[in-house]
Q: What sequence folds into this?
């Protein structure tokens, strides 16, 4: 099944699936399955689907009304529920109702915001109901505005992907090692809040961070990998970058960083929080940073400040990768041997290579490496252990 809930090959009967079918499958999984339970209800393709194999089954998704109810208990150890955008009700779960469960994926469901189902979902995934839960993924959940999760110490990984209505996150996870947040676009709104207690957190992959006045984060000092951060240049409002800048200021132990950037079509910028002014921010010091990857970089030179920030604020820097988007109208940057960032520390640029970005854009890739690298290992950091938390994690379930 593809990320949007569509099958790779044609599923001609997607529109024929009813709530009764879903209920029967969920009852079977609740009562009979003791190992791995996977339910993948296909999403009905929209009328405007262009692929011929998808279009043959296309109806208006509004014409299919699906309803589903979360199981009140399970015997399975791993459960993956893709509910085809069903309207989901969540009963009150008793203590230990999901005791065997170690891995849970819930995707493509709709929840009434602010109601009992929203509260019950947070309770269901809590320590009292899921004392052994290690990995939790919530993906493409519509309507979920607030997630309050008091997790068991066993929880090591949490992924929130395209929970687009989320504006409140309260997370107490004493054993959490990796937190991934992407596609939660309303988290950057003024008034959004995130209260996170994760003192063992090591991997933070956060594309959407709420403004600092709504952010409380116990665990920033332990983060070693900052991934998939998103920064705007020449954005119309300073708060768009405020949460990401806060992470740069407070995750001071990070030794690896990846940043994706985007630029508004403005010629000038006077915002103090803009990406093009970050090199003047004395509060950002990344003294342990060794490796940086910057993607989404346009061919204009408005964004030299981000690279300069990595230089001045990261004295231990060993490697930097910069992907410049090829612009056929640009005359200055495309395929030049040196991207012109004036690296002041000792090192050299490798010859640039051409490639394709994940967004299918033509890019020129530059890599810089320091002449001398520190020989000692990463103190207290097990690279093999951390590798399991990096990336999209789809192999787990």
A:
């Amino acid at each position: 099944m593809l990320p949007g809930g569509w099958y790779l090959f044609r599923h001609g009967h997607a529109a024929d699936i009813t709530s009764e079918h879903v209920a029967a499958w969920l009852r079977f999984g609740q009562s009979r399955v003791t190992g791995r339970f996977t339910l993948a209800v296909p999403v009905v393709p929209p009328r405007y689907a262009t692929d011929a194999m998808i279009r043959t089954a296309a109806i208006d998704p509004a014409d299919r009304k699906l309803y589903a109810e979360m199981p009140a208990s399970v015997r399975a150890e791993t459960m993956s529920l893709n509910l085809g955008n069903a309207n989901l009700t969540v009963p009150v779960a008793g203590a230990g109702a999901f005791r065997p469960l170690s891995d849970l994926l819930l995707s493509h469901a709709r929840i009434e915001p602010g109601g009992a189902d929203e509260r019950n979902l947070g309770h269901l995934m809590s320590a009292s109901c899921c004392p052994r839960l290690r990995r939790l993924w919530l993906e493409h959940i519509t309507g979920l505005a607030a997630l309050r999760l008091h997790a068991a110490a066993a929880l090591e990984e949490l992924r929130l992907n395209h929970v687009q209505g989320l504006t409140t996150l309260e997370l107490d996870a004493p054993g959490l090692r990796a937190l991934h947040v992407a596609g939660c676009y309303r988290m950057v709104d003024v008034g959004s809040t995130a209260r996170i207690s994760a003192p063992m957190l090591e991997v933070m992959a956060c594309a959407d961070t709420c403004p600092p006045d709504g952010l409380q984060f116990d665990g920033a000092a332990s983060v070693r990998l900052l991934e998939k951060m998103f920064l705007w240049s020449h954005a119309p409002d300073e708060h768009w970058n405020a949460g990401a800048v806060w992470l740069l200021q407070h995750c001071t132990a990070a030794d690896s960083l990846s940043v994706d950037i985007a630029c508004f079509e403005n010629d000038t910028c006077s915002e103090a929080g803009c990406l093009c002014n970050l090199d003047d921010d004395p509060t950002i010091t990344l003294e342990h940073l060794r490796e940086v990857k910057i993607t989404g970089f346009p061919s204009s030179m408005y964004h030299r400040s981000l690279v300069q920030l990595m230089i001045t604020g990261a004295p231990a820097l060993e490697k930097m990768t910069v992907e410049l988007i090829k612009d056929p109208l640009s005359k200055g940057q495309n395929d030049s041997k040196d991207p012109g960032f004036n690296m002041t520390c000792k090192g050299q640029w490798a010859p640039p290579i051409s490639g394709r970005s994940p967004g299918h854009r033509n890019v020129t890739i530059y890599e810089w490496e320091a002449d001398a690298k520190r020989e000692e290992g990463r103190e207290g950091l097990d690279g093999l252990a951390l590798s399991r938390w990096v990336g999209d994690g789809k192999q787990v379930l």
Notes: Confidence is low (pLDDT under 50) at residues 48-59, 329-335, 376-381. The chain has six helices and 19 strands. The radius of gyration is 23 Å.
